[in-house]
Amino acid sequence: MVIHAVLGLPTAAIVALFAVFVLGGVVKGVTGVGLPLVLVPLTAQFLPIPVAIALLTVPMVATNITQAAEGGHTLSAIRRLLPVLAFVVIGLLIGVHLLLSIDRRLLSLILGVSFLALASMLGMMPHVRIGEATARWAGPMVGFAAGVLGGMSAMFGPPMIAYLVGRGTDPDSFVKQMAIFAFTASLTMLLALGGSGSMSGMDVLVSAAAIIPIQAGMPLGRWLRRRTKPRWFRIFVLIVLALGGLDMLRRALF
């Protein structure tokens, strides 16, 4: 699926796609998150949505390994997240099935509405506090919703960001738990796509090669992070996400 779609692009489109992945690396270097938020809408300008998402799977797994292990106490963090992660996996398997089976116009409509809703949610980021009793049922529900949405779009993060902020998670724990969540979700997605026959061994290699431009962009992102207010990059990510949502609606309706 991936290798044929990428090799079928004209040279100019491949160069532009490489530049998009470098940009994704810059955003990842600045904010530590946001890779699929930028890359899914932009990559979908060159490739069908299922191919664009499959192309992102290996980079998403690889870029979250070190952050998930960072700072120690990884196993205890996984145990705390286990009820949420279990529902993420269930939801993701449903989302991947929808990605591969539903009508492309309907998929574009769902993703367009979801992208715009996520951009609005992240832009406002309501200060909701989630207590321990509420978290017992809200965590699995958020995990399931994040899994379904992530399976269709690779956008696992926004629902979990809102949940962890609502839980009052401290910054170090936030980065670690988001990385564990993203690693689990993206690895499940990679296995689901491979198990369904939608990604061959060559497709996985092409996806792995996409790590190169991302890694090329990350040092520039880290350099910019030290010199620029991060909120400007957050605004940029939200604008890209909103524009991507509008483009998805255009594809669905016209």
Polypeptide structure, described:
α6 runs antiparallel to α12. This protein is mainly alpha-helical and 254 residues long. The two termini are 26 Å apart. It has one domain (2-253). The protein has helices at 2-7, 11-31, 35-43, 49-69, 74-101, 104-124, 132-153, 157-166, 171-195, 201-209, 211-225, 230-253. The protein has 12 helices and no strands.
- Distance between termini? 26 Å
Tell me the Rg in angstroms: 17 Å
Strand content: under 5%
- Low-pLDDT stretches are none
Q: What is the total number of structural domains?
A: 1
Number of helices: 12
Q: How helical, in percent, are the residues?
A: over 70%
What spatial form do the alpha-carbon principal axes imply?
globular
The overall pLDDT, averaged over residues, is: 85
The structure class reads mainly alpha
Along the chain, the helix and strand elements come as HHHHHHHHHHHH
Count of strand segments: 0
Report the sheet with the most strands, covering strand number, pairing sense and barrel closure. none
List keywords for this structure.
single chain; 254 residues; globular; mainly alpha; 12 helices
Which helices and strands appear, and what pairs or packs with what?
Elements: H1 2-7, H2 11-31, H3 35-43, H4 49-69, H5 74-101, H6 104-124, H7 132-153, H8 157-166, H9 171-195, H10 201-209, H11 211-225, H12 230-253
Helix pairs in contact: 2-3, 2-11, 3-4, 3-12, 4-9, 4-10, 5-7, 5-9, 6-12, 7-8, 8-9
